[in-house]
């Protein structure tokens, strides 16, 4: 039987032109760590200047120093909690004083934990909805005047959790479904001003808190086999999608949810031996001999 082929993740800098985002300013909630740190780093390698936002001022400042050092561009740390719109207005003001404008916004700040419904208090549910959904709205509200002025672009980091039921993820699933529809509403309402709004929905991305939380130890191989492209995502995969959606190449794309998951959402038959059943189709008929269902 042939071995499953694994397409390697490549950095966006090997595909797109080097000065793609020269003179652009990006405002990234959650940019101090995780996926949004890597996305920010990539945008800066293309020349963008970045304001990164997060709750922990020390960690954020260290991240800004590292990003500037690694990319040769400029990152600015603006401590803020997306649940507090005043802190976002202050971060926008500071960004305008520092960089003079905002062209792109990434709504990436998110909170999550695994908990069964019975383990979720009303406050716990509200906490996740407030960070993920209200936080996205607050970020849009605080940046809107500037984004309209620049005819800029929003990207919201959503998820694929809510396309089907996932145990212990009720709050985040509900919140991300809201983020998707909020983005669509923005696309319709802001399109006539030249503003675009899209979501990126990452699948399982290796080396993230989300993957650590959702995949139990030893489960990595099983998960990988269910992903049609046969590997978990890398942060590069999400960064590449972000570069495309912010670029002029995506000029007529708004109100879309770009699922970046190696095809995972389309695989729905975990009882089949996958990928063996497609790599060795001859054995396929044998599987169903005597099937009763
Ligand atoms: N299971 C059930 N309830 C939980 C919980 C868990 N694992 N963790 C927190 N809660 C509840 C708390 O008990 C509290 O509710 P209560 O007052 O009724 O007891 C409520 O959620 C708020 O918790 P608190 O810790 O005060 O909120 P916070 O604003 O300080 O932090 C998070 C919220 C989501 C940021 C925090 O839980 C966290 O750091 N999570 C991991 C990091 C993360 O989510 N990263 C994003 C990756 S996608």
UniProtKB/TrEMBL annotation:
Q: Which keywords has UniProt assigned to this entry?
A: NADP, Oxidoreductase
- InterPro entries in the record, alphabetically? DECR2-like, NAD(P)-bd_dom_sf, SDR_fam
Question: What Gene Ontology terms describe where this protein resides (cellular component)?
Answer: peroxisome
Q: What SUPFAM superfamilies does this protein map onto?
A: NAD(P)-binding Rossmann-fold domains (SSF51735)
Organism for this UniProt entry:
Malassezia vespertilionis
Protein's GO biological process: fatty acid catabolic process
Enzymatic reactions:
a (2E,4E)-dienoyl-CoA + NADPH + H(+) = a 4,5-saturated-(3E)-enoyl-CoA + NADP(+); a (2E,4Z)-dienoyl-CoA + NADPH + H(+) = a 4,5-saturated-(3E)-enoyl-CoA + NADP(+)
Q: Which CDD domains match?
A: TER_DECR_SDR_a (cd05369)
Q: Which Pfam families match?
A: adh_short_C2
Q: Which GO terms describe its molecular function?
A: 2,4-dienoyl-CoA reductase (NADPH) activity
Enzyme Commission number: 1.3.1.124
Q: What is this protein called?
A: 2,4-dienoyl-CoA reductase [(3E)-enoyl-CoA-producing]
